[in-house]
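Lab notes, practical 5.
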Amino acid sequence: MLRISQLKLPVTHTEEDLKKKIVHTLMCRTEAVQSYEIIKQSLDARKKPELFYVYTVDVKADNEKQLLKMLTRKKRAGNVQLHEAMPYVFPAGGNEKLKSRPVVVGCGPAGLFCAYFLAEYGYQPVLLEQGAPVEERQKDVEEFWKTGVLKPDSNVQFGEGGAGTFSDGKLNTLIKDPVGRNRKVLEIFVENGAPKDILYVNKPHIGTDILRTVIRNMREKILVWGGEIHFHTQMTEVLFTENTRRIRGIIYEDLLKKEKEEIQTETLVLAPGHSARETFAMLFEKKVPMEAKSFAVGVRAEHPQELIDHSQYGDAKASLPAAAYKLTAKLPDGRGVYSFCMCPGGYVVNASSEEGYLAVNGMSYHARDSRNANSAIVVTVTPEDFESDHPLAGITFQRELEKAAYEAGKGKIPLQRYGDFYRSVTGKEKEKTEAEVTEAEVWYQGHEPCMKGAYEETDLAGIFPAKISSALVDGMEDFNKKIRGFSHPLSILSGVESRTSSPVRIVRDSNSLESVIGGLYPCGEGAGYAGGITSAAADGIKIAEKIRQKYAPFL
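Output from the prediction step:
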């Protein structure tokens, strides 16, 4: 087939316009184009308000090699080349026989995709999740947002689908993908109910509402293929062989029956979420090698979505999706400040998972149609900031912030206008720039939070160490140079955003992907090897590949 890149069309174009552009680019007859597939679509807003979609498409056409020769001869082949599709291929099975079924702990993207592939190829995995199935979990979360009554094992962090289930469902990733795992993740999502456009849009997202359906459909396939899933089931201990440090099984507790049982396995996929603090503590006590890692903490910043749309699109009149942004700043002391998990047309949500501690996250439905944009504005923290060399020191650091947030908000989401936060941190009044007075002011009229969960206005600066609060102010002021009105005094901050990624890495070999404890496979975001839905899912596939290459299936 032929791959055409850099096909540029106005955002108001039709499907017919795209077909004509393909024919024009190939300088061929319309009927010579047999079919085409959009591989990538991105938005070019550099000349706003004139906006363009830029496409990469794969085209099947008559006499492709002759077409390319003709284009080359006429010096029109710059963006056209022959292309051979290389779909993802799951490896062939190994020869070693399994004595018992593989056990996968954790039903976030990493554990879910690992179990999905193992089940499809005949390994009959046992999947354990300490939280609830997604239907029950949704009710628990909505009840928590309404009443403030938290279920420690069924909330925004714990349950089928992992923390990403109650998020924007963003699927973009920065990891390199030479074998096509990322694409395969998107294809599986589509096969299970996600919209087809996630296969090609530049920054795909599903939305929390559709993602729940996709996860449920994946669960049902795992069961049909011979897998087994236990909800409300927490691993409480890992068991090793006596003479060699190899996995021989686990002990788990049925949290509803309050009963413990043992299950034998020589293959344990450890795919906890980044908030599985009890599990991390147990693994540390069992001397599973782990280390503290850097992550980021900060606040959620809410701005009127119309302000962000105007900044990104100008006065374009076309019907366009709610605009997103990505912002970074390097401070003089070397610390980084950046936007994270940006949710266009979204909501700030109470994402707590422990009584007496409070964390926030961002969430959008597929339509992205709330009146506010929100994003985490976070500051990088490293093990040096934890004032301890303990592998779990990052968890202690998180808990200190989350406890302070809970107390500041009296159990509700603590919230503060940026102008008041600025004054509290700097001791000075926040002055509006000319742009904020002349342009942004109109967007901030009636600007109120879009939140899931009760909130309380308070002083956010007291939650953080002074150096973190100061870095947040410096970052907000820098970002105002890129999006005018970003640091407007009436913009809204809430906290604490502390679960950006795992504070722990469970050490594994770079080739076998096993821990030094044979048969133990640390996997996904909680184990420290991913950052988001797609990369976690791809890591789950990588672990399934390793098990596949070593062992023969049961069927």
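Observations recorded by the TA: The radius of gyration is 25 Å. The chain is about 30% helix and 25% strand.
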